[in-house]
Write a structure and sequence with these properties.
single chain; cytoplasm; SsrA-bd_prot_CS; alpha+beta; 7 strands; SsrA-binding protein; seven-stranded antiparallel sheet
Length: about 160
């Protein structure tokens, strides 16, 4: 019996950093929680967040999301939040130690890939540990992308 799955309104991507996979070689990903205020959650549910220029930083044994943009919730009036404030990321101690070691010792960068709501309706951030690509690596990935696109066109034309 085929059951048609309805798209869960809670389980949706709010913001995605598409430029991150082009600029960084993603080595590992970790799902983290976010410490948000009520108006930030309501703003996220409207789907207008932006994490293009944001990054994560290890400071004082905690990991912070810096320079992410969550627009103000218009109906909140004076109880609104600051759009570009630093937001604390929720991880357990072992994950935090692993990420801080990779940043300190190996020179990696913590890059947010996307913000989404999980099945329970909680806002989550997919955080990647990545190494910055050099210019020639970026050109190579662009060539691969163009070739795969061209290959798809050729296969489509020939049948």
């Amino acid at each position: 019996m085929n059951q048609v799955r309805k798209a869960d309104p809670n389980n949706k991507t709010v913001a995605e950093n598409r430029k991150a996979r082009f600029s960084y070689e993603v080595l590992d990903t970790v799902e983290t929680g976010l410490v948000l205020t009520g108006t930030e959650v309501k703003s996220l549910r409207q789907g207008q967040a932006n994490i293009q220029d944001s990054y994560a930083s290890v400071e004082g044994g905690e990991i912070w999301l810096i320079n992410s943009y969550l627009p103000e919730y218009l109906q909140a009036n004076r109880f609104n939040h600051e759009p570009r404030r630093r937001r604390k990321l929720l991880l357990n101690k072992r994950e935090m130690a692993k990420l801080s070691q990779s940043v300190d010792r190996e020179g990696m960068t913590l890059v947010p890939l996307k913000i989404y709501f999980n099945d329970q309706g909680r806002a989550k951030l997919l955080l990647a540990v990545g190494r910055g690509k050099k210019l020639h690596d970026k050109r190579e990935s662009e060539k691969q992308r163009d070739w795969s696109r061209e290959k798809g066109r050729l296969l489509k034309e020939r049948g």
